[in-house]
Amino acid sequence: MARLNKKLLAVAMPIALATLLSPSAQAVCSSEPMLGGICWMATDFCPTGYIQANGTALAVQANEALYSLLSTTYGGDSKDFKVPDLRGRSVVGLGSYYNGLVLSGQRRGAATTRMTYDNLPQHYHRIDPATFVLTGTLSANKTAPTSNSPVGRYPAISSVSAMQSYGVGIKPVAMAGGIIAGDLSGMTGETSSAGNGASIDINAPRLGLTACIAIKGYYPPRP
């Protein structure tokens, strides 16, 4: 009995090793593929029994077995269906993870992004009041004032003095240039805008290969 077991083991081990090392157990395009399997080629074409996984539409009637596996998960209708489109895309496993839920055929991610206010860390822009330069025109009136409210009005001469700020007979007139000293308090404002808002490339380093999907082969048994 012990001798028989040793003989069986000697036969079984090479078979098991060959199975593990066979192309069907690797991410290569096998000559005996599982229907709907994805593989990669360094060439610009896919082997016989495969087509490129580029979103091609196939007729349901001519590919009923493959349609029974894919349905319209990757696009299509009752007459045709599409294979996965892996051009310029990487793949990710299905199911729940820390940042959400990945569904079959779901497109996720983007090649670029734009930063918004919410993406920026808290920070401050320094404003130096000593460098402020204020410009403007101050108008005045040569007649006696009729109201002590400054709203919508100009500075005028005193009602009890013959002294006038300006003697030009035009009203209102612009005051001559000069410097007015004083303190500013409670001032609000903002800095001038900066930046162009260009998109940020978030593509990781990648290498282009030909993605293939098996349209002929063994029907994969469900567990």
CATH topology of the domain at 33-89 and 207-223: heat- and protease-stable fragment of the bacteriophage t4 short fibre, domain 3
- In spatial order, strands of the major sheet run 1-11-2
Taken as a percent bin, the fraction of beta residues is 5-15%
**What is the count of β-strands?**
11
How many helices? The count is 2
What series of H and E elements makes up the topology?
A: HEEEHEEEEEEEE
Q: Overall mean pLDDT score?
A: 77
* Helical residue percent band: 10-25%
Specify the CATH class of the domain at 33-89 and 207-223: Alpha Beta
Distance between the termini: 34 Å
Shape: rod-shaped
Q: Using only CA atoms, what is the Rg?
A: 40 Å
Structural category is alpha+beta
CATH architecture of the domain at 33-89 and 207-223: Alpha-Beta Complex
Keywords: Signal
Pfam families: Collar (PF07484)
Organism: Pseudomonas cuatrocienegasensis
InterPro entries: Phage_tail_collar_dom (IPR011083), Phage_tail_collar_dom_sf (IPR037053)
